[in-house]
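Much of our argument rests on the idea that a fold can be written as discrete symbols. The record that follows shows the chain in one-letter code together with its fold in token form.
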Amino acid sequence: MFWKFDLHTTSHIDQLLDREDVTLRELMEEEDVLQECKAQNRRLLLFLSQDHCMQELVSLITEEPPADLEEKTRFKFPNIACELLISDMTVINDKLGGDESLLEKLYSFLERDPPLNPLLASFFSKTIGNLIARKTEQVISFLRKKHSFISLVLNHIDASAMMDLLLRLISCVEPAPLRQEVLNWLNEERLIQRLTELMHTGRDEERQSNASQTLCDIIRLSRDQANQMPEATEPDPLLVVLESEENVAQLLKSMFEGEKTEASIVNGTQVLLTLLESRRSGLEGLMELYSQGCERSYTVSGSILRAIEPHLKDFQQLLLDPPKKSAILTTVGVLEQPLGNARLHVARLVASLLQSSDHSICQELCRLNTMDLLLDLFFKYTWNNFLHFQVELCVASILNHSAHAGLQTPALQNHEENSVPVSDSQTEQEIPDLTSSTDSLFQQCRLVQRILDAWEENDKIQAAGGTRRGNMGHLTRIANTVVQNLEKGQVQSQINNLIKELPEDCRGRWESFVGETLRETNRKNTVDLVSTHNLHSSSEDDDLESPFPNDLSIQQAFSDYQIQQMTANFVDQFGFNDEEFSEHDENINATFDRIAEINFNIDADDNSANAAAFEACYKERIQQFDDCEEEEDIWEDKAINYATQVKSRSRFGVSLSSDSSPKDPVRNGQRGRGSASEEEEEEEGASPPSIQTPGSEKASSPRTPQSKFSLQISGIRSTMSDHILLY
């Protein structure tokens, strides 16, 4: 046995721990120190939990290592120390969370001047985060006593590890009452307001980005937890502040006050987009919701929309006069004035606002003619698919919400206390507001004319050998959206009237475009890229040679029928079902017996047209068993064909004993004669001849053509079972 060789190796750590003067550094030099720690090596854990070891571990993750060390080994010990502290061992957690001197040493890391070493900051954040999850009450109590804790964390917000620490405070505290206390504490510290102030244009871009990401994550986390705990008696105070009109107004003020920078615009808009995200059950994607039209149910807080509305003109100005950007080289040439991230985020914001279906917002966007400006950008930047998708969403939102204006009301907004109250007069007012959006899209924005002009211009470019424009796919989808709403829905009559108001030549071009060009484009877009025709391999069919001449149609039809039966039912026939597999081994023959039971009856009438040909074929190929022949010497040297032996065994399903009569060539899996393979297959399919007395063969009845044909069928049945076993 393998254990008698004593292959078990003792860890070198145990040998080191036997020494009285062993140091922490010596143990950390061992490659398996983490493995032994997580394997709960008791001696190692007791050593690590000693005061001087814990002090040294905390110092390693909070103090800058010497600069003269080689870079690849400089942070080796701090990394190992962090992994040991967060190994989730109870003795280490108890020691670190219960010793206030160790917590003070950890906390001192925050009191350093920025910027922090990002690697050490991640070690600190991981260690504190682990304590928040494992020793929640002790750590929260310690942090609440530190009145400068939030200020210090925000002072180092340029390090992403500090952002992670704030999110752990919000999401990793259990139970629910303690979590509510933490949220109230963070709200008292004005966490949201202070993060919003960091979005000011004069701040460092890294701070702005991390502050924006923190606010977005807090919004999503708070909403998710609110959905998971609907029985919560108190609302999330952080989410209430985030959705308040005062906070959104402060965010917008920080974005547009002073010099407008792309970083402040993009980061602030990301927070607004997160606030405008729908809150609904399920994980349906944006594209799925878009395909469903305006049946998506939004629960956008009315206070958010009321705060954004006065600043729509500022976003409109950004589309006209974005932050300056230098020319860039693209794969299609030099772009002198790039679209820029700021204008792309404005387009995303407009799409989200239109999807909210708020009548006041839609009215203001129509007054500013924002859609006309977005369509200008759509046709100017023909290769920016991010922009194309947002413009497509805007068009679909206007048409779909108009079509469902009679069904959907401002109840799309949430039913919270801070939602805008909905009255009957407002419901009646929304319909003409959304209808005016559709009118503006077809009249002021000239959507139909733009589609036709862009399509014709693209055709000219392609006819001259140019490249198809990059916005043609989204333009096709926009055209299809118009046609779909033109053919059905409550907005059908309105769009029909708008189409009729077009100039006569434009109306004719549109009808021709829809009936011919767009129809053909849609047909091409739905064609399968790969043919669905089943390509059939004939390799197996080639191996199944028919025993009949190919010029005889009835024999060829019979052969094709047998092959068709094998291939069509092969999966069902091959193998065992549960009952057969669990029974005695003799049932192993059942599969091939079923194949042999296939019947194909053809009456070979002497009067038929093929009777003479069949008789000639029979006389040429079929030879009768003759028991009077000279007995074959089985020991005679000759070529051995193993395939024939396999066939004979598979035909009967089991191997026969070796003491079978040598007079029976079929039972012994050997050739009875040296004839061609066709003759052997026909003979092998016949029943083994019985022992007869002299003269008995003469007394036997002669075989008729029909019985001869049955002999052929039996041979093919056997050949089929042979091939199934071989393949």
Notes: The beta strands are 328-330, 333-335. The mean pLDDT is 76. Residues 589 and 653 are 5 Å apart (CA to CA).
